[in-house]
Amino acid sequence: MKSRDLIIKTARRLDKFNLDELIVVSELDEKEVTEILSDLIKQQIILKNNNTYFFNTKKSAEITNNDGDETISEFKPIVIEEEEGYEDFLKFGEETQNRVRAYVGLLNLIHQAGTKNINKVVELFNETSGYPRIAPSTFTRIRRKYSQYGFRGILPKFSKHITVAIPDEIYTCFKKYYLTNEKLSAQEAIYRAQKELQSEQKIEQPYAYTSTPFVRKVRTEFTKEQIEYFRNNIEAPKVKNETIKIKEPLDMKFEKAAYIYLKHLKMENKLERLMHDKTNYKNHLKPYFDNLSIREITTKVVAQFKQSMFDNGFQLVSVNIYITLLKLIIKTVCPLTNSLVVRNNAKQKVYSVDMNILSDKKIAELLNICKKKYPAAYPVIYLSLSTGASVPEILALTWERINFEDNTIFLKYFLYEQRLVMNRCGSTIRKLKFDDNISGILRKKFEGTKPELTDFVFKFDSPKSPQQYIENIVLRGLSAHLGIVRLHPSDLQHNFVNMCLKQNVPITFIQKALGYYGLPNFIRIYKDLIANLDKGNYNPLNKILESKE
Questions:
Q1: Cα 300 vs. chain centroid, distance in angstroms?
Q2: By the 8 A CB rule, do 244 and 199 touch?
């Protein structure tokens, strides 16, 4: 047992190693090391990938008693040859097959090791497998597809290989419109079919289906020649849209409609859109409309909502964004209800957003109060105000993305609902420099807690998520102490821009610090701040002449 314990301690210390390294460090006989190592691999305390071994940190693999019994998690590896869809797999070229084998190998490894250090395991696999490199974001997508569709889900163009359940009644009705000489688009044929079935009360939820599964099913059932024949010779049914009375769920509460809309965004994996729309709904639409039914949200109610937003200091552009979201939510469940929004005929030429800009004195007070009252959140607020990084980006920081040698942070992800989401645009993936003040705080925190490099830098002792804690506890509390309009996380970036502009920092530097894709986008957002600067009347020729004198 002493040798076995020594092997475990050595493996934990080395973390990643080969057999020769383990023998040298442990100073044990090769045969003894091999036997113990083989036993530990079976018990999943040590994991193996080709000729590389690493210690499994998964809790289920820890020793549970002194008798030598271990908790061995049940694991059934994915065997490609035994999976449904193997025939489809063989149709692809060698390069594609190798990529799929890499996905399967990594899935097996993650299932063994657990998801606690998933990024670390992915990196290890890339270094040792010999297969094409897999990005963590790509693996997350592959893992999700595998859980949804099985092995076929990780094949290229997997949607062609899966069967989408389409109710017979709507498919039959779809064909009636699609396979006619009217030659409607698939989307229009679905729309007409759903309207007809809604009038007969056979379906409740409109726009529940997309066109792709319908077209795929039609092409599976009929040949190209047959489809062409139908579309040239079969007369379209004469249906007058005005005679079809569609029952829409107008008595549905707005809260439920919002839930359906946000769920659709999540299902479509539109995470950035989901994050913004969810925030706007909770902060602006929810308090006003949640208790109303769709029927009760009339043009008069919308006009009253607009006026109340104007009274609270919101600009026209922002109000129109909220109303557009209102309309989208209603259209999700009631697509024919389109006459809700009263538009302002006056064209708004200036694009701007609501910004809570603070004076230098207020910013200093805010930081002092935050340091005393919310010390754990102080570095987050300080970093955002001093670097221009957004709060979700700062909360997504891990220790491996902080470089204390040159005092920089590497921003590649943002935190959304306790999960990391990669910034899509190249300009948003950036390095930002922080000052010695925050460097000392972060160094002290790192040396005091001694965390793993993959651990999050900022953790809070609160039942709320990190984003909710910063927004609803810290910033709300600070706003109340300062007696100002409530601050939101984006206001920290806005104040960073304002401070930089007042100190004549180049606009291009500010734009890159915030991660804006292009300078025109930045200027459109911060046009008002730029215009308010007193730049004076400068004569560059005077400086040249003065230098010669």
A1: 36
A2: yes
**Residue 85 per-residue DSSP state:** T
Q: What percent of the chain has pLDDT over 70?
A: 77
Structural contact between residues 167 and 205, judged by C-beta atoms closer than 8 angstroms:
no
The residue behind tokens 């049940």 is: 74
DSSP string, 157-186: TGGGGS-----HHHHHHHHHHHSSTT---H
Using DSSP, state whether 420 is helix, strand or coil: strand
Residues 326 and 281: beta-carbon distance below 8 Å:
no
How far apart, in whole angstroms, are the C-alpha atoms of residue 475 and residue 94?
55
Type and span of the H or E element at 415: strand 413-416
Longest dimension (CA), the chain: 92
pLDDT digit string (tens) for 318-371? Answer: 888 888 888 888 887 777 655 454 444 434 433 445 678 888 899 999 999 999
Closest CA to 530 of 347, 351, 310, 363: 351
**Size (the chain), residues:** 549
Please tell me whether residue 388 adopts helix, strand or coil conformation.
coil
Per-residue exposure over 449-475, b if at least 16 CB sit within 10 Å of its own CB, e if not? eeeeeeebbbebeeeebbbebbbeebb
d(CA 254, CA 286): 8
Q: How far is CA 56 from CA 28, 239, 316, 362, 407, in A?
A: 21, 65, 56, 50, 32
Nearest CA to 514 among 384, 422, 399, 398? 384
Q: In the predicted model, is pLDDT for residue 1 greater than 70? A: no
> Could you tell me the pTM of the whole model?
0.43
**No. of helices (H) and no. of strands (E), the chain:** 27, 8
| Alpha carbon distance 4, 533 (integer Å) | 71
Distance from C-alpha of 427 to C-alpha of 55, rounded to nearest angstrom: 37
Amino acid at 75: F
Q: b/e for 499-528, b at 16 or more Cβ within 10 A?
A: bbbeeeeebeebbbbbbbeeeeebeebbee
Name residue, tokens 């590497």.
Answer: 410
